[in-house]
Structures are given as C-alpha cells and as structure tokens.
Amino acid sequence: MRLLRIAREGFGALFAHRLRTFFMMAGTIVGIAALTVIMAMGKGTEKMVMKRVNTFGPRAIMLIAGGGKDLPPPDMSVTTLTLQDAEAVREQIAGLETVTPMAWNFRMSATRDANQTSSVVWGVEPSWHAAWNWYTVAGEEILDDDVATMARVCLIGQTVKRELFGGEDPIGQRIYINTVSLVVKGILERRGASPEGGDFDNRVILPITTAMRRVMNVDHIGAIRMITEDPSLMSKQAEQVRALMRERHHITPPREDDFRIITAMVIAQLARGASRTLSALLIALAALSLIVGGIVMMNILLISVSERTKEIGLRRAVGAAQKDVFAQFLTESLAVTFVGMLLGSGIGFGVCQVLAQVQSRPVVLSWQPFALGVAFALLVGTFFGVQPARKAAKLHPVEALR
Amino acid sequence: MIKLEDIEKTYDTGSVTTPVLKGVSFHIEAGEYVAIMGASGTGKSTLMNILGCLDKPSAGHYRLDGTDMVNLDDDSLSRLRNRKIGFVFQQFHLLERATALKNVTLPLIYAEAYPGDAEQRAKGALGAVGLTHRMEYRSNELSGGEQQRVAIARALITDPTVILADEPTGNLDRKSGLEVLAIFKRLYRQGRTIIMVTHDLTVAEHADRIILLKDGTVAEDRVVPQPRDAEEELRTLSEEEETS
Predict the structure, then answer these.
(1) Interface residue A314 vs chain B (CB under 8 A)
(2) 3-class SS of residue A294
(3) Distance CA A134, CA A338 (A)
(4) Are A264 and A57 in contact (CB under 8 A)?
(5) Burial of A207: CB neighbours in 10 Å, binned 0-12, 13-18, 19+
(6) Of A335, A315, A331, nearest in space to A395 by CA
(7) Which of A188, A190, A258, A186 is closest to A223 using CA atoms?
(8) What count of other Cβ atoms lies within 10 Å of the Cβ of residue A135?
(9) For residue A42, what is the enclosing H or E element?
C-alpha cells in the first residue's frame, strides 16, 4: 500500500519530534478530556433527576400546606388546608386519577415497652397506597373501614420495625404514638433513603381519621397528593388547583399563596439546578480548547513545513507527487488529534472514576463522549491540517531544494 | 536516450522577462558520462532542473527514454522522476535523523509497488558505495563524503535511466570529492548513464564528454580525449600525504 507507506512517513516525523508533537496534542487532550467528564456528569445528573422524579412519582402533583418557594421542610403550623379542600379538588379538577389527603407530623415518638424512636407519622386514606405505589410486605393495608371507624391500627416502616421490634413479628402487636395505643396491622415495603438524605422507612402510617382525631388532634391536613391521568396536562392542572385553592382560601393579590404546588416537572427542574447552564458553559470551554488546540497545531505544522522545506523538496525530487506530500502532512495532523483524543478520553475516564468516588452526584460513563471525541478529532485534524498540508504540497520542488 | 531540442526557459517576474536558456539542443546516449559546464548564471542549474523533470521548459522538447516530458502533468512527472532519475545534490539532502538504510530506501516509498527485497537492495546499493559498515548510522553521524555516498546509493536504488549529479563534489574536501568521482567512474564502467553539472573543469574532466554552456546556449560540446582517473588521483594523494 503506497498510501500506507506515505502515512508511515508522517508518523515517523511525529515520533522524531516528540515534544513538538505533545504541544500539538495538548489542546485536543484537554478538550476531549473535558468533554468526556462533562458528558459523564451530565448523564449522571440526568440519572439522578430521573431517580428523584420516580421517587416523587412521575405523574404526581403535591399540594402542600404552607407557602414559600422550592422545597423547605413542610410547615406543620399552617392550618388552612382541609379535607374539604381535598373534596373540592376531587370534584372540580378533571383528569385526576387519584386525589388523596394526608395529615402528617414529622416528629412523633413511637414506643413499645422500653423501645422508643422518633418517627414520621402520616394519616392517610386507602388510596394513598396507589398514589405512592407503596404497599405492605406483610399484613394488611389501610382500608375504608379503618378510616370510617377511626380504627386504632397502623402500618410501620422497616426502620420503625427494627427499632421497636428487632427480630420479632410486629403484626398484631401494640405500639404507642404519643399516648395512643395502636395495633400494627401491616409492614410497609422498604423504600430506602430519600434524595434529601431522610429515611423513608422511618414511618408510621395511620388511617387519616385516627391520625387527626385520636393522635394529632387537628382539623387540618398537611398535603393532598394527586395523580394525573395525562402527564401533559400536569402544568394546567396544577394551575387549576392553585386557582381553586386561592379562591377557597380567599387569597387575593398581593397576598401570597398559603400553600405550594409541586409537580414532577418542578422536582426535575430543582434537581437539575444550574447543572444545565454549567454544562453548557463547560462544553463551550471544551470546544474552545479544541479550537485553540487546533490553531496551535496548525501553526506548529505551518512552521514545521517551513523548517522541512528541503525535506519536502527532496521527497518531490525522488518521486513524491503533490498528493503524496499532502497525505503525509494530513496524516500528521490527523494522528495528532486522534492520539490526543485517545489520551484525552483516557484522562477523562480516569477523572470520572475519581469523581464517582468523591462526589455525591453520580457520574455515568458511556460511549457517546468517545464517539463525539472521534468525530471532533477527525474534524479538528482535517480542518486545521488541510492548510499546512496544502502549503507543503504546493511547494515547487526547485525552490524547495534551493 | 536523452534528447533536448531547442529548450528555452524564460523567467517571468511581472514586468521583467529574463531568458535563461535560449535554445539548447543535444543528445546523450545510454552509457555516456557527460559533464555540463558553465560559469554561474549561464543557466546550468536551470538546465539541470529541466533534465531532472523538476521544472518544465518554456519551449522546446525534452525526450527521456522516448517520453516527451513537456506534455506531462505534475503526477506523471513525479512518477517519471521516481522511475528514471537518480539525483545527487551538492548539499546531499538526506533526512538527518534517519539511518543511512532508511535514506536509501526513501525513493521506493513513492514507487508504485514497494519491492519485497527493498532492504536487500538498499544494502546492495550501500555496499556499492563502500558503506556497508555505516548502514545503521544516522546521516548526521556521517562525514560529508559518507553522506554524499549515501545519496549516491539512494540514487541507485530505483535502478534509474540516468544519474543526475549537481555539483556533487562542491561541498566536499578534495579526497572525499575524488572518492565520489571514483564511484561515478565505476558506475560508468558498469554501464550507467551519468550527467554531472559542475563549474569546475578539473571535476568535469573526469567525464568523457563536456557540454559547455555560455549565455543560455551550448557553446561547446566536446569529447574529453583523456578523462581523468579518480582512482589514480586518490592513490597519488595518499602517497603525497605519506611523504609529507
């Protein structure tokens, strides 16, 4: 293969001038490494966002008592949200699969004999199970009868079970929330840690009536959870709920809402945070580094063509055609960007491994940044290699040899 | 084998046109050893470039082995140089960092097919110029005379129709120059065609024919009755060194 022999001449020059070759490569290495890391971080963020959205419920809308923005801990002192509000939502907002009210207290003591723990207590209706897709692994769920009769029953999470019962079977046993005695009728599925670092399994679930009348002694509820039939309607429904609540709570401008509405989309936005803007900025930096690196490479190659004028003249004299000289120099630039890309990808993957160890956010490696790197390497190598190669090829042999 | 007919070369630098060659004609047959002579500015470099197919004449015809190079495009000229011409330059023009062996095989890279026995051939060529012991040396580790001998080996590797030497002894001391001329003489005796451009009559007289250029035309074309013998002069030189 003639072309292969000529390409080898290009590699030879790169090997002979290793330092120069490294300088030509630097921009590509940095650019591709940055790109690899950014894309891995971006993928990691998306994975985290997906996880949070799934935890929240991809079709869920939460109406939470207490105003404010973002996600502060729910304000339990706000008493304006009621069961009647839930009823109104159920009746007036179309396209909701489930509407389920919840009364909650995030810090109640649960005791059994000498064992005590501080636990999150939620009073719920039977539809809560479907709304959170959260069922029992043993025993029974909360039933309509329990709500109707204000039954002294509860479900406990895995953490509560461990704290109060150790290895024993809790079903049918008695625990105390504050001073109210309740019979454990079921054990909840394990949910693990919440994205904010809390423990989903440190939880006691009661019939909502029991919770409000017997345990918490309140007339208000903490939140209403809605599941939409059609996620594309979610924003519109959230607005409808907001209007309804402002009307029911007699809120007129300029007064702020005394509730918050959080949808799966809001969760996604919050989870992404500034990562989109940040990664756009970093991608711009990586691109800049590739372009600057390409320009540096082009200039070094142009200088190298000048330095090697005699060599080019000689090659022409012993039979190299213009296209052969062109191929030799383009090989040099392509080899530089390609090897730079391999090194950059390697460094990028290495940095990702380290980041995955030290960062709380996940880093997801994939083939895409590598494929993109190959494309960029070819693009930069060709774009910035053509001019020096052409300059070399266009040299007149007589003048080059002079 | 080499036929020049009314070769003209004019350099056009915008407003000024400078005629350098004004109708040069001569034939060189296979197996001849010809020196082209002339003072500087008489167009001998230009003629050399045309003979080497590095440049085209402005007018006239140049047939090398029957092919008129005037009609060829750049690619075909490159191929022609590769196959038919072996260059030896005044400044040697070797790849500095490459070994002698690598330098010698360079023309083969641009051949249509790379011969399987390329290395053997290169070794043979280096042997022919007496450099078997220097094959793995880089060219910048060699003396000037050795470098020029590597260049001759490089010119031989493609088994060209003609060897074109441009002031081959110009950058060498007397002894190295004579060694190069001795190699040319040996190649000539083996039947090679050699054209040597020089301004130095003592060098030119090693050839058996001298074409003298003057003012862009052939002023004289004569046979050298008693060509000098480089081997003999080398012997005399070493005797002189011993006695002194």
Answers:
(1) yes
(2) helix
(3) 51
(4) yes
(5) buried
(6) A315
(7) A258
(8) 12
(9) helix A18-56
Contact B107 A319 (CB under 8 A): yes
Q: Render the burial of A244-267: b for 16+ CB within 10 Å, e for the rest.
A: bbbebeebeeeeeebbbbbbbebb
Task: Kindly state whether A394 is in contact with chain B, defined as any CB-CB distance less than 8 angstroms.
Answer: no
**A51 at B interface, C-beta within 8 A:** no
Note whether A5 contacts B154, CB cutoff 8 Å: no
Q: What are phi and psi of A117, to 5 degrees?
A: -150, 155
The radius of gyration of chain A's CA atoms, rounded to the nearest angstrom, is 33
Q: What is the pTM of this model?
A: 0.78
**Location of structure tokens 């706000």:** A78
Residue type, B215: D
Q: Which one of B13, B21, B45, B78 makes the best mutation probe of the A interface by having the most chain A beta carbons within 10 Å?
A: B78
Interface test with A, best of B110, B119, B159, B166 (most A CBs within 10 A): B110
* Helix B118-128, helix B144-156: angle, nearest 10: 130
What distances in angstroms separate CA A142 from CA A126, A156, A214, A224, A357, one per listed residue? 5, 11, 16, 17, 42
Where are any strands of DSSP class E within A242-382? 259-263
3-state secondary structure of B61: strand
**Cross-chain Cβ contact B93/A310 below 8 Å:** yes
Greatest alpha-carbon pair distance for chain A in Å reads 107
Chain A from 333 to 352: CB within 8 A of any B CB = none
Tokens representing A222? 């903490």
Burial B42-69 (b: 16+ CB within 10 A, else e): bbbbbbbbbbbbbbbbbebebebeeeeb
Question: A393 CA to chain B: closest CA distance, Å?
Answer: 11
Q: What is the pLDDT of residues A99-149, one digit of tens each?
A: 999 999 988 999 998 888 999 999 999 999 999 999 999 999 999 999 999
Q: For residue range B72-129, list pLDDT tens digits in order.
A: 999 999 999 999 999 999 999 999 889 999 999 999 999 988 888 999 999 999 999 9
**Residue A71 carries which side chain, given as an amino acid letter?**
L
Say how far apart CA A39 and CA A370 lie, in whole Å: 10
List residues of chain B with CB under 8 Å from any CB of chain A.
Answer: 49, 52, 54-55, 74-75, 78-79, 81-83, 87, 89, 91, 93, 95, 97-98, 106-107, 109-112, 114, 154, 158
Q: Is the peptide bond before A254 cis (omega within 30 degrees of 0)?
A: yes
Burial of residue A375, with CB atoms counted within 10 A of its CB: 0-12 exposed, 13-18 middle, 19 or more buried: exposed
Assign domain B30-58+80-243 to a CATH class.
alpha beta
3-state secondary structure of A69: coil
Cβ atoms of residues A175 and A111 within 8 Å: yes
- The ipTM, to two decimals, is 0.95
CA-to-CA separations, A202 to A4, A65, A117, A209, in angstroms, rounded: 68, 22, 9, 21
C-alpha A359/C-alpha A320 separation (Å) is: 55
> Per-residue pLDDT averaged across A256-261, rounded?
88
User: Using the 8-state DSSP alphabet, how is residue B205 labeled?
Assistant: T
CB A274 within 8 A of CB A45: no
**Domain residue ranges of chain B, discontinuous segments joined by +:** 30-58+80-243
| Averaged pLDDT score across all residues of chain B | 94
CA B53 to CA B57: how far, in whole Å?
A: 9
- Tell me whether A16 touches chain B (CB under 8 Å): yes
Residue B43 and residue B9 in contact, taking contact as beta carbons nearer than 8 Å: yes
